[in-house]
Every structure is written in C-alpha cells, then in structure tokens.
UniProtKB/TrEMBL annotation:
Residues 161-324 form the Glycosyl transferase family domain. Gene3D superfamilies: Glycogen Phosphorylase B. This is Glycosyltransferase. SUPFAM superfamilies: UDP-Glycosyltransferase/glycogen phosphorylase (SSF53756).
Amino acid sequence: MNIHQFSAGFQLGDAISQEMLEIKRLLAKENYEGKIFAENVLSSDRKFAEKLTKANIKPEDVIVYHHSIHSKVLDFLLQFPNKKILIYHNVTPESFFEDYDLRFSYLLRKGREDLTVIKNHFQHSFAVSQFNLNELIHLGFKQSRVFPLHLNFQKWNLNSEDIKSKTHSNQTPSFLFVGRIAPNKCQDDLIRFARTWKSNYGKNFSLRMLGFCNPDQQSYLDELNFMITQLDLQEEVKIIPYVDESMLKKIYSESNLFLSMSEHEGFCVPLMEAMHFQLPVVAYAAGAVPETLGEAGILFQSKDFDQLAKEIDKIFQKNEYRNKVLFQQNQRLNSYLKSTSILPLLEVIKS
C-alpha cells in the first residue's frame, strides 16, 4: 500500500507543501511509502513532488488530498475508487481577488463549490484548524476532525546568536511579515502602518514583507510598490521575493517583531515560525489567527494604526512587557508542538 498525497500546487516553503513533506516523512517512519503530486510544480521542486500526470495509482493505494483551491487534481482523483482522505486547509474568499485576478477569483469560487463534491466522494476528512473544521461541519461533513499541522523547526538549528537580544527592549524596530503577496494578506495595510509609525516615531525602523507573488497578481504588487514610493517609504519598507530556508532563517533572526494585517487565514504558519525565532507577534484577529495564537501574542480587533503603534511601542520600551509576551508565546508553541501527531491519519488509513 502506498499513501500518495495530492494538491493543486507544490512550492517549497509554502505551508501546504511543507505539510505534505512532513506527512511523507512521518509515514515513512511507519514503513509507508508514497509520493507527492500536484498540478503545478516548479522545476526546481521536482525532486520533492511530481506533476499530476505522472501519478500511477494502484487499487490498494490510499489518496490524501490537500484542498485549498480548484484545480484539475480533484477530477483526476474522482476517477479512482480508492480510499480518499481530505485534509482541508481552507479556501480564501474569492472577493479578495476580484479586483486583481478574475481567473484566480473563479478558481477560489469553484474551490469552495468543490467541497460539496468532496463530501460525497471522500470517506474521511480532516481540517488543519478548528476554524476550518467549522466550515466543513457547516457544509455537512460527518465525523471530521482537526488534524494539526506538523511544523518542522529542527531544520533551522537555532543557536544563541540567532535569538540574541530578542528579549531586550530599546531595539531599533525591525518589523517582519512573511506570507504570499496577496490581497487577503493586506500588505497594503502594513505599508499604511509604516507611514503611521514613521510619522509618530521617526524613520529609524524597517519593515520587510517577504513572500511569493503569483505573476497573475502583479497588479497588487505594483500597487504596493506605488504606495511605498508615494508615501516616501523607500528606505524603510522592502518587499522581498520568496527566498530559500537559509535566507528565511537569516531574515527571521534579524527581525524583532512580527506584524500581520491578514484578513483571512486557515492557520498561518508564520505566526508559529515567529514564535520559534523569539519575535513578539502582533496580529489582526481574523480567520484562524486567534485560534493559532491561543493566549499568546497580541491581537488587535481594529486597524487603528495610531493606537496600534502605541501598543507596539510598549514592546520596544518595556523589557518586562516584552519578556511576558515572549514567555506566553513559548508556552503556546510548546503546547502546540506537543499536540501534533500522525496517529489520526494512520487510524483512517488502517480502517
């Protein structure tokens, strides 16, 4: 028996892709073999995943499908009578993309419609957060469960140099956001915050936004670059295209606060990554973000940038406050990492 995993796309560094790699690794420890397939795979990533057209499914194989958007993958999988397992990562509401990428907006709308088809043809279903599970339950999925994402932070091998001074205040603010350059991530609001911070506290700070931009959504990236220029933030604000793991580690290590304005998340792995790198996390309370943070980090309900700047300034001015935030984040991260297990997936594979 092989356990084959499928998704619309595979890109190293993407949360779904990382999850598939971790599941493959954990299943291998249980003596299960299998491959990862996707409709879209970058040529540089084909040592990790293969194109959908190369999939060879045998009658005894188990199919694990990671769903987040419409693609050819679902129709391909429906051809087979094999046991099928859904892992739901959420579908971003199409409305975020209607002004930038109509084709992508269509794929998101179809992706949500696909859930009804999946409900009728898949034997088992999981969601990577309670937020996502609530959607499945609302749609009538039976006996679905939360299957927490498997986060592999050992790949970074942190040492004291990587987290030096993270527990000290009075640092030059170095804000970071990691995530796709996309309208639902609201990098435009990060830029507006940077303008407010510069007006209130001067230009001695930096904001880096790191992420891949779909070429079809170039108009949103163009809008961001236009804002940076118009608001005279070229020195302070930088947009960095997707980088490899070693550069990502370097950027996390150089930063001292993670700031998210995202308005839709099915989990948001970078929140956990930031905790791992000892960055205080400040995030807009949308989607699964409150669930992911638990009692840790600092959530805000309103994008009142003047008020938010005051709250964030406290983190840089008050050691005790900053250390309390980091302590709570460490507790949350440790608790989450202990909650992950491959056993729920093994149970349905063997059932």
